[in-house]
Design goal:
Elements lengths: L8 E2 L1 H6 L4 H8 L6 E3 L2 E5 H12 L6 H17 L14 H41 L1
Helix pairs in contact: 3-4
Keywords: Plasmid
Amino acid sequence: MTKTSLPETTTRAQLRGYGASEYLAIAITKTLTPIGKEKVFKLYSLKQVVENIREYLKRSRIAPQTRLTLTRLLEVLSKRLQNVIPAAFGQGSDPALSQLSRAAHSKLLEINTHINKLKGQSATIKGKSNARRQRN
């Protein structure tokens, strides 16, 4: 496994930072194969984690609080996925406007990627601090 920092990955610590309990973070990722490692944390595909949460939510015997936590977690992680629909910028009548539109779209994607990476780092820090508090 290689060290990577893709925004399309998540760790158990991040899941805890987003509100999942340690048990729930393990239950969600138990069947997944890590796609990499960052320091001591195993990286899981964000898309696979979202799919596992959806499968977990299909179970009939889930406590209401757990269902609420999973729903919130699903919302947050779904926002982190890079679902980009290609736009036809070159079909406009003004070439300068088309070029500016492409440049703006490119910068927007760059910024969104950076924001998602920062949100993931924030969740990791929050997950680590929550785990330390629970031990003490």
